[in-house]
């Protein structure tokens, strides 16, 4: 039986203690695995495919080779036949919702011409090749395939490859394969773990090097992405899932409890927090969470998650609750209050905000359209959800006529000389001084 969730008065001390506790879940706190990950990356860089085959046999118990590493078109078609046609229909509709939402994010290159002949602008260019990591086994999430691949495709990325670990018979989850096909993946490779990240980052005989790697994974995958950052781009170092619900006395305790458990079931490190101005609601939600959890299939994971990182905080005012929510900066934030849109105006830090009692978090996970790849562990203070811009580069454009530069050249020279960079100053000066003039003074 799952025991009642703990109820704590919200004070500066309890808020600070909870923040410190939550931060312990960050991948930055798992340095003991870094040596293992570094060794895997080094082996893949050195031995390439041979290392992939060895690690796949060791970790996944499948004899990988150059002939079977890439998933065939026939396997993808077979995956469709293994799925409920209604599920395929839902995946297709979800993909269309995600595609429509992300198309609205597209920005255009722009140029601004001045009367003096100056032209400034920004050129938008999609990255050349994107790599998507998809977990396998029990952690197979077709929804994450859609969320990673579709923004890249909308951004105009020419080639998208995907890696995902096989089972001992070499099979890939059929939902994952169907979602990849619907989203528009160009090639799927049956390899997982840190070795897959290394392969995409540096390239092997069979897997091409990519420009950016996105997608969730276990601690080894997260640390591998961290290690290869700089050689390639990455989306983020994802931590465990988290939800925070802001609620007042008008909230339905059954809805609140159900939504908290929707994230607690992800894994034992997931956090589920309610901040409310109502002690009565707090007690009702705690009791209801116990009732729900005892009937759910992942009750053991839920129990450990709530024991470790589940909190109900009772605040004196809604402003105190909002301030705490901004400090925690949760991945998912639900607002279940009498006027959720008014409360939302005070929120600065959250990965995604869900407003009203019929906007529960799984709506965003599966169907609405906004991306569910969100910042965790407080990084919503400075990171955004995965979006089209993650797969596009911005290049500055500068063009000055002689007339435009002549008006400002002395200012530029002065600035450059103030930093001791006389070659910079000279690069401007020579365009206006007669030949043979002395170099700018130190």
Give an overview in words:
- The structure is a single chain.
- The protein is α/β, with parallel strands linked by helices and 442 residues long.
- Helix content is 44%, strand content 15%.
- It is built from 18 helices and 14 strands.
- It has helices at 12-23, 34-47, 49-60, 73-81, 85-103, 142-155, 174-183, 193-202, 219-228, 253-264, 279-293, 299-309, 318-328, 340-344, 361-366, 402-406, 409-418, 422-429, and strands at 7-9, 110-113, 119-126, 129-133, 159-163, 187-189, 212-214, 233-234, 242-247, 271-276, 310-314, 332-336, 352-355, 392-399.
- The strands form three sheets. It has a six-stranded parallel sheet with strand order 1-11-10-9-12-13, sandwiched between helices. It has a five-stranded parallel sheet with strand order 6-5-4-7-8, with helices on both faces. Strands 2-3-14 form a three-stranded antiparallel sheet, with no helix packed on it.
- α2 (34-47) crosses α3, α5 packs parallel to α6 and α6 (142-155) runs parallel beside α7 (174-183).
- It starts with 6 loop residues before the first strand and ends in a 13-residue tail after the last helix.
First-residue to last-residue Cα separation: 77 Å
The geometry reads as globular
Q: What is the mean predicted local confidence, pLDDT?
A: 93
State the helix count: 18
Outline:
The chain is α/β, with parallel strands linked by helices and 442 residues long. The protein contains 18 helices and 14 strands.
Structure keywords:
442 residues, alpha/beta, 6-stranded parallel sheet, 5-stranded parallel sheet, 18 helices, 44% helix
